[in-house]
Every structure is written in structure tokens, then in C-alpha cells.
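re the bet — no i am not wrong, look at it urself. input seq straight from the record:
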Amino acid sequence: MRVAVFSSKDYDRRFLSSARTGDLELNFLEHRLTEQTAGLAQGHAAVCVFVEDEVSAGVLTRLAADGIRLVVLRSAGHDNVDLACARSLGIVVAHVPAYSPYAVAEHAVALILALNRHVCRAYNRVREYNFALTGLLGFDLHGRTVGVVGTGAIGTVFARIMTGFGCRVIAHDVRPNPECERLGVSYVKLDQIFADSDIISLHCPLTPATHHLVDADALARMKRGVMLVNTSRGGLLNTAAVISALKKGLIGYLGIDVYEEENALFFEDRSERGAFDDDLFARLLTFPNVLVTGHQGFFTADALTRIGEVTIANLLGFERGDGPQFPVATSD
């Protein structure tokens, strides 16, 4: 079976090729999947995509016309896929529901530690032989209240790590996780997360209900000086409202690995051009208490190995006629 692998980087080629078995023919394409590039899938039976690829109704219609019957995501999230359209066209969608919750959870903790102890500023100072401590004051994590929004696999691992620091961990989820409760995590309403937490970390999917979950109203209900961390999906934050809260000092620290308009920025080297055609992103980078990473939370060898294995398993299952191992319910 021939598979067009869009948005492929050298690491995608390495880990997918290592996991490949059977008669799968992987055609690695550097192009992102868009309506303009969908024609590159012609002659293939399936496409393999990532979070920055566009799998809209227009793209799916073009893929279906070219005989594509399977879209395999190299990610857990599928908010970039028009699932209703896929269902109507008879296109099966599959994903990698769990690759390494530790990778993303640990990255969230890394953002917290780096922000709290001003690691980036300290690193730059020492390289200039400036050993002054002014401006580097942090706080003990021990005893602080950490609010976790979303306690799936990643949120639960994050909660476990933060309890290890001696934090009081509270959480909000539409479906409380018994594993979190066994850790001593208390489930509370979202309003209490906002009101009580010194640190808030977002680990929920992007859905119509969670889009701009953190807006001006939510920010106004948080503790002044709160640390806000988002390693889930950029659309959970209203960026304009976050910038306003940073300017007013309502947010004390912001750590994000995702951005709501990241498709135009992330996963490419834009060092020569910069990001100044995105005024909101450029403004975020001006704040000394903001730390942005480029959607690298998932990026560990362990996670990429698992992504490769599950992606290949999904493709082989479809090729055999059994269906992919991890289909996405297109009725969602």
C-alpha cells in the first residue's frame, strides 16, 4: 500500500522507516497538506499527516476524488480534521491516542521550573560573566497549589509529578480520573481552579467547548501573579486577552508550547524572516516573564518510537481489511 506522508521531517523518516513492516511504501513529502498540495496524494491509498496539516472539507473532498480512503494522524489530537466530512466521504481517520504522556507532562514541568527560577535569564547572564542575582528571585514549589485542567494520561502524569514536589494539586475534568484521586488530587469546579491555583496547567483537548477556555473573564478570576502553562492546544488561550493580562500584571508567568496560530509559524526555521507578520506572537516574545517553545513537548525518542509503531500498525490494519488499530470516531 502506498502512503503519502505529509509534513515529514528527518525524524519522521527515521522513526517511521524503523517501524515499517510488510509491503507499505512510504512516500515522504516535506509539503504540508493543504488544498493546494492535496494533489500530491494522487496514486496513494492513504495519507499520513501531523498537527499542522489541513484536513478540511475541501482537502478531504480532493483526497476522496483521488481514491484516498484513510487518513492517519501522527498525533493524538484531531482538531485539524473535519470528522463529519470524512464520515460523509467514507474516509477512515486514525490517530495515536497515547504515545508518551511523560514527554508532554515533563515538558510542562520544565517550563514551570525555567520560569520560576529564571533559568533563561540566568544562563544568558552567566555567559556574559554577570553573576548578580537581582531579578532571579523564585519561589518554593513545595506547598503551592497547582490546578490541572484535564486529567487524561498527560494530565495525570503531570499531577503525579507535582505531588512529588509537595504541591497541593486540584483538578477539573468532565470525567474524574480514579488514578488522580488515588494520588490525593481533589476535583473541583473550574472556577475554583482559577481562584485557588498558584500554577495552572492545561492538559485538555481543543473542542468547541474548550476554545478560548482562558479568556478575559477567566483571567480576571485568577490569582494575581498566577503562572499559566499550556502544552495542549493553542486555541485554549485567547491570546489577545492573555497579552492584556500580562500587561496588567495579572499573569506573573506564562509558559506555552503551543500557539493558536502556530500553523503559520511552528516546525520550520524562520530565523531569517522572523514572526513579525504575526503581531500577537511578536508581542508575546517581548515579555521577560513569557517562555515559548515551538510545540516540542512530544519530542522525545520514546514518543517518536511509539508514534512510529502505532502509525504503522494503523496502516497495516487498514491494509489487511481489519481497520486501523486506533480509529477516531468520526461521529464526534
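see?? The chain has two domains: 2-99+301-320, 101-292. told u. also The chain is about 35% helix and 15% strand. so pay up
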